[in-house]
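Quick illustration for those who missed Monday's session on complexes.
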Amino acid sequence: MERAPLAERLLQGQRGALARAITWAENGDARFARLLEAVYHKVGSSLRIGVTGPPGAGKSTLVNQLARHLRQAEKTVGILAVDPSSPYTGGALLGDRIRMEDRTLDPGVFIRSMASRGSHGGLARATVDAFDVMDAHGFDELIVETVGVGQAEYDVVGAADTVLVVLCPGAGDGVQAMKSGLLEVADVICINKADRPGADRMLADLSEAVHIRTAGKNVWETPVVSASAGQDKGVDGVLEAIGRHRAWMAEEGRLQASREKQRLEQVHRVLREGFDNEVWERSGLADSARAMIAASRTPHGAAERILEVLVASLPTSWPQSLEARTPEPQEPTP
Ligand SMILES: Nc1nc2c(ncn2[C@@H]2O[C@H](COP(=O)(O)OP(=O)(O)OP(=O)(O)O)[C@@H](O)[C@H]2O)c(=O)[nH]1
Ligand SMILES: [Mg+2]
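Prediction with guanosine-5'-triphosphate bound:
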């Protein structure tokens, strides 16, 4: 018997289809675009949480507990664990799997680790794609965990509606966390390992810093909560803070605006990848650049010249001609 197309099986909630779809997303498979078109009408109802923070802060432990609590509230949960690219986290990866394992027996939970591609923003693109197919598959809640506090991690958690930053006492103090730009990206901050000394102090310092930063402005004041995920303490408080952020996002069209921005960024990422693959490599642009460098142009001079010619070769009517041609969704062959 012939199998139904992947899109159909995905919408039926088949796990195998979801796994395959995420692999396509991960590999930047050319078939993904058609697949997404076929299921896109089902994308948009999952609530998305991004979790980041320094290595070992207890992110996976907390995500596991969040999933457990959400399941108790009868929500289905899809979890994406983005492989940390730093070599020293190799051991922790295995740990992630073990700790998350007790969730995998429950059909209401799906856990997938995704390899970091590391270049050209490919990881953020793949994360959004994976979230979209998990969304179409029908999970109530989606969570992505990524390790680190740098731009690459912020790009990944940017696929979420709510960014949860997990810190813990001892792994650098609150001041260090503030310096790394965490306050800007965090919608909720959780000081985990509250059973350890220094947690209260950190909570007070960060709360104050957040308050000073936002006082008198019409912006979200990031709640700072504490938890001991290892002992399943304070997890409801984290969920409650996430809930408050969601309520705030639902007002004044903020969620819609944020998702529109995310989709626009995704177009940009896919375009950049497409430029690298289609234009740079296949159109011979790389060869022209090589020739210009051989003729002693600087790299900047060569790039400037290429951009000039590219922009000049765009037809003046191109925005209209782009909008006019929206193809009908087609079923991809699995
Ligand atoms: N004392 C204490 N330890 C905890 C708590 N939560 C987690 N841990 C421990 O902290 C260590 C790291 O936990 P993980 O959940 O793997 O941390 P992570 O942030 O996901 O780590 P990476 O993914 O490697 O960055 C483990 O040994 C956990 O058992 C807590 O509330 N209290
Ligand atoms: Mg982890």
